[in-house]
């Protein structure tokens, strides 16, 4: 079976998380991804958060599957020459260096265009053009500047960041879409182009509903599905933190289940979806709410939501989260157990679909990773281990046309 991106060659000049997320996806879709790493040290994440001495960290291995690794000192003249050869022979360069680093290295957009006018140059930066464009950015900075932190957490607590890496991996996903779109356009124009995904923009895109709410708040002064409304609190000028309230038109909350006193994840997310209100009332033994005008309509329920959730919780606390899920699903009542990472890692259905994959690594042995979350029916993903530092340097240079002697000379000079 062919792969969707077979024949596309990527010069992967990425490091840490955001860029590698993007190029890993492209590799899973069949692109030949050549990761260019600093000679001697490689991507800094190889050594970060190590759980096994001298083995590439899970941080690195889980973001760099299906790639080839070459080492190259791109600040030395002969290293620059190798990079130029790579630029001439690749379709896409992906980079997420600090702003200006590529220019300082001598590889401006104009220079890259001279070398290969078809080259697509894709970048992750912290910010787009503007007052902060020169700033270095990591995950949580993006969550804070993209609107996620100010809208996450509880009303009476500080802003919160989320465990989902929406700044890094979220931006990598955005960049991947930009790249395949630019490749598609190149089919018609024959030209490359620059692709930029700024982390602030990507986070804001994922926080779109909160900008919606900001404008609703400014127009009406109130948002009835927010817990502040139910609790009779006043709204300020900006979208407040909504705790675990549902972001959509159907109210929801996290409810305790059996065992919550000792298990921090014995909770279920419960949605009081309007079409199944009658079923909800029957399941929890409050059939009188079906016709009671104080509860019968979504509008009547809005000021009573926290009381309703507390009543449903009295019922959920008598059952495990999985029992609650089974019972509510029988009635088509939307809900979801709070799954711990341990439970997710052990979930057989995720193994069967390839969303969780066990990979064997020559130094660290077997480990679990998240496989390709995007499934194509005609381009299957086989997850292969991440490369060792410089594992493919000779192979790639030979493919680029370098003789064994030339490769030996570059090694002697410590360029590779
Ligand atoms: N050979 C020689 N030098 C190399 C090289 C190579 N193969 N690869 C990179 N370098 C150099 C760069 O040219 C740069 O040199 P310069 O500072 O002299 O111009 C240097 O290595 C460091 O790169 P930089 O990107 O500044 O790394 P950093 O560790 O200081 O900063 C980030 C890390 C993530 C903060 C920064 O890269 C950044 O803001 N990136 C954009 C946003 C982003 O992706 N953030 C999310 C990270 S998950």
Present the secondary structure layout.
Elements: E1 9-13, H1 18-28, E2 32-37, H2 58-61, E3 68-71, H3 77-89, E4 92-95, H4 101-104, H5 109-115, E5 120-125, H6 139-145, H7 169-189, E6 194-198, H8 199-206, H9 208-220, H10 227-230, E7 252-256, E8 267-271, H11 277-283, H12 298-301, H13 305-316, H14 321-330, E9 335-337, H15 341-345, H16 348-352, E10 356-361, E11 365-370, H17 393-400, H18 404-412
Parallel strand pairs: 1-2, 1-4, 2-3, 4-5, 5-6
Antiparallel strand pairs: 7-8, 8-9, 10-11
Helix pairs in contact: 1-7, 6-8
Bound molecules: coenzyme A (COA).
Coenzyme A (COA) is lined by residues 16-19, 36, 38, 72-75, 96-98, 101, 104-105, 124-126, 136-138, 168.
Cα-atom Rg, whole angstroms?
A: 26 Å
- Spans of at least 5 consecutive residues with low confidence: none
Strand content: 5-15%
The global form is elongated
Helix-strand sequence? EHEHEHEHHEHHEHHHEEHHHHEHHEEHH
């Amino acid at each position: 079976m062919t792969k969707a991106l077979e024949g596309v060659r990527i010069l992967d000049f990425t490091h840490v998380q955001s860029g590698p997320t993007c190029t890993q996806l492209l590799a899973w879709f069949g692109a030949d991804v050549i990761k260019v790493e600093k000679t001697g040290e490689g991507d800094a994440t190889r050594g970060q958060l190590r759980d096994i001495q001298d083995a590439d960290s899970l941080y690195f291995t889980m973001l760099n599957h299906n790639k080839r690794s070459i080492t190259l000192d791109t600040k030395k003249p002969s290293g620059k020459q190798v990079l130029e050869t790579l630029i001439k022979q690749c379709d896409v360069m992906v980079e997420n260096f600090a702003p200006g680093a590529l220019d300082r290295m001598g590889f401006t957009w104009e220079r890259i265009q001279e070398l290969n006018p078809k080259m697509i140059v894709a970048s992750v930066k912290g910010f787009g053009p503007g007052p902060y464009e020169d700033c270095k950015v990591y995950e949580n900075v993006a969550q804070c500047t993209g609107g996620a932190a100010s809208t996450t957490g509880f009303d009476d607590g500080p802003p919160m960041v989320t465990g989902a890496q929406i700044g890094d991996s979220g931006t990598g996903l955005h960049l991947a879409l930009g790249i395949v779109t630019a490749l598609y356009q190149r089919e018609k124009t024959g030209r490359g182009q620059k692709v930029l995904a700024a982390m602030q923009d990507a986070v804001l895109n994922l926080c779109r509903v909160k900008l919606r709410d900001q404008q609703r708040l400014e127009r009406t002064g109130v948002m009835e599905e927010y817990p502040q409304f139910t609790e009779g609190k006043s709204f300020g000028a900006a979208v407040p933190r909504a705790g675990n309230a549902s972001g959509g038109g159907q109210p929801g909350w996290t409810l305790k289940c059996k065992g919550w006193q000792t298990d921090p994840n014995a909770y279920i997310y419960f949605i009081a979806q309007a079409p199944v209100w009658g079923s909800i009332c029957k399941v929890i033994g409050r059939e009188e709410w079906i016709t009671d005008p104080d509860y019968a309509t979504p509008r009547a329920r809005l000021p009573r939501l926290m009381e309703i959730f507390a009543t449903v919780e009295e019922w959920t606390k008598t059952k495990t989260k999985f029992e609650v899920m089974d019972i509510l699903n029988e009635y088509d009542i939307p809900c979801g157990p709070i799954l711990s990472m341990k439970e997710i890692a052990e979930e057989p259905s995720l193994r069967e679909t390839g969303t969780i994959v066990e990979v064997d690594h020559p130094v660290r042995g077997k480990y679990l990773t998240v496989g390709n979350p995007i499934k194509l029916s005609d381009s299957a993903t086989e997850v292969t281990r991440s490369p060792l530092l410089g594992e493919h340097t000779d192979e790639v240079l030979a493919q680029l046309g370098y003789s064994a002697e030339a490769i030996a000379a570059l090694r002697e000079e410590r360029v590779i």
